[in-house]
Design goal:
The chain has 148 residues and is α+β, with helices and mostly antiparallel strands. The chain has one domain: minor pseudopilin epsh domain (minor pseudopilin epsh fold, 3-Layer(bab) Sandwich), CATH 3.55.40. The protein is 33% helix and 34% strand. The strands form two sheets. The chain has a five-stranded antiparallel sheet, covered by helices on one side. It has a four-stranded antiparallel sheet with strand order 4-7-8-9, with helices on one face. It is elongated and about 85 Å long. The termini are far apart. This is General secretion pathway protein H. It comes from Azomonas agilis.
């Protein structure tokens, strides 16, 4: 009865290590994009709930680098959108390759009111390997479809 030599065993372990490293590198960006989109969907639902419970008008906008939660405030007789205190937390690791089809703006593209969504909104999220189209029909539900 013959067994494996130490060299054969080392070679198999080296190949397994290489395959594992390649699979982690291949799955890494997709999983960070997926988690960023999940975080954004959760943030959206939370903003809708906050708007309903607090009676405030809240929104989501794109800063050019990451999404940002904002609220409508009266400032010196003018209505202005200002960032929520917690709107910068959690977006530091936003994947740079994940972009919406909206430009950076002071105005939010999704607006949550105490009575629900101000109007239906569609946003296309793109990254090098794919994309998704998000459609807010109500303030608590986002319909997600793969986009080419």
């Amino acid at each position: 009865m013959q067994g494996f030599s130490l060299l054969e065993l080392m070679l198999v372990l080296a190949l397994l290590g290489l395959m594992t490293a390649l699979s982690v590198a291949w799955l890494g960006p997709a999983s960070s994009i997926g988690s960023a989109l999940e975080q954004l969907a959760a943030q959206s639902r939370q903003l809708a709930q906050q708007a309903q419970l607090s009676g405030r008008i809240l929104g989501l906008r794109w800063t050019g680098q990451h999404p940002q939660s904002v609220q409508l405030n009266l400032n010196e007789g003018r209505l202005v959108w200002t960032p929520l205190d917690s709107s910068t937390q959690g977006w530091a690791d936003w994947p740079q390759e994940l972009r919406p089809d909206r430009p950076a703006a002071q105005e939010p593209w999704v607006i949550f009111t105490p009575s629900g969504l101000a109007q239906p909104v569609q946003v296309r999220w793109s990254w090098p390997e794919g994309g998704e189209r998000w459609h807010w029909q109500t303030s608590t539900r986002i319909q997600v479809q793969p986009a080419p």
